[in-house]
Amino acid sequence: MVKEFNLIQTDRIIEMAWEDRTPFEAIEFQFGISESEVIDVMRRELKPSSFRLWRMRVNSGVSQKHLMKRNPEIERFKCTRQRMISHNKISKR
Question: Are 82 and 88 spatial neighbours (Cβ–Cβ below 8 Å)?
Fold first, then answer.
């Protein structure tokens, strides 16, 4: 089953997925979708070449999309624009 999102939610998911320091777990917490569902959204919404670039970046050593790859000293990441973009009260925490 594929979840449907409005344009604003889809844009936010894509933006969070592109951010190296935002883990998949944060996307799951905010939108209730797993890593594989994020990949499906990216595959559906991006051009094929952009999707391939994103996948290469996520699977490289640069990205910290998985909590296991992150420095243990980083407890959370809060984008300064997150509340303006998502209008999500979670970002106030």
Answer: yes
User: Angle, to 10 degrees, between the axis of helix 48-59 and the axis of helix 35-45?
Assistant: 150
Classify burial at 76, counting beta carbons within 10 Å of its beta carbon; exposed 0-12, middle 13-18, buried 19 or more: exposed
- Are 86 and 12 in contact by the 8 Å Cβ rule? The answer is yes
* pTM assigned to the model: 0.69
Taking a C-beta distance cutoff of 8 angstroms, is the pair 51, 42 a contact? yes
Full pLDDT tens readout for the chain, 93 residues: 567 899 999 999 999 999 887 888 889 999 999 999 999 999 999 999 999 999 998 887 666 666 665 556 656 555 555 555 555 555 544
Instruction: Quote the tokens at residue 49.
Output: 């070449």
